Amino acid sequence: MHFFKDNRVKRILFILTLLLLSFNALSQSVDSISVEPEKVADSSRRSGDAFGFRLGAGPDRSGEFDVTWQKMLGRYRLEVDLGWAQNDQWGYLNISTAFHFHWYIVKGLAWYVGPGVNLGWYFGDYHFGLGAGFQLGIEYNFSFPLQFSIDIFPRYNIFGATDAVGLGGSGALSVRYLF
Question: What distances in angstroms separate CA 83 from CA 69, 80, 96, 135, one per listed residue?
């Protein structure tokens, strides 16, 4: 099979397999941990989920704008971002997702880290791109339903635009409405 002789395909399959195994192990460990109720969000008013915007930039992109959604899973969280990034050579329509481990520092202030993937379409080179990495950030949840966060999302771009393959990522400021 000529398809599997391409090293890029082998790398992609290897990384996707590692991600699937990681998420499987993570989901089994989440089931075995008892989670305390969320200390920040008033459960009578909102679920802890959030929706908003993420604005950022990085070494492989001059600007990024995402619509972002977060789903609380006890002490853990899933974040999904749909957005547009660009630099001088290309534009990039992407979807990113990350699974966060979430810890409170003090009431309202928390930090998080977790694995993530990014999939998108490059305009300019006209092909798909894929990256895997992790997201690390800090957030503040006000007593009213508003959240500010600052994060970095370093990742290894497995394939994509010629000048975007390799180490890349972004840093961003997010504003979200908690519901």
Answer: 12, 10, 8, 16
Give buried/exposed letters for 3-33 (b at 16+ CB in 10 A, else e): eeeeeeeeeeeebeeeeeeeeeeeeeeeeee
Report helix, strand or coil for 48: coil
pLDDT in the model for residue 12? 64
Topology of the domain comprising 44-178: Porin (2.40.160)
In the chain, domain spans: 44-178
Q: Is 5 helix (H, G, I), strand (E, B) or coil?
A: helix
CB 132 within 8 A of CB 19: yes
CA 51, CA 67: separation in Å to the nearest integer? 8
Strand partners, 131: 118, 157
pTM for the structure as a whole? 0.72
C-alpha–C-alpha distance, residues 123 and 28, integer Å: 39
Q: Write the DSSP string, 147-171.
A: EEEEEEEEEEEEESSGGGSEEEEEE
Q: How far apart are the first and last CA of the chain?
A: 50
Give the C-alpha separation, 114 to 23, whole Å.
11
Confidence of residue 8 (pLDDT cuts 50, 70, 90): low
Q: Which two tokens stand for residue 27?
A: 């989901």
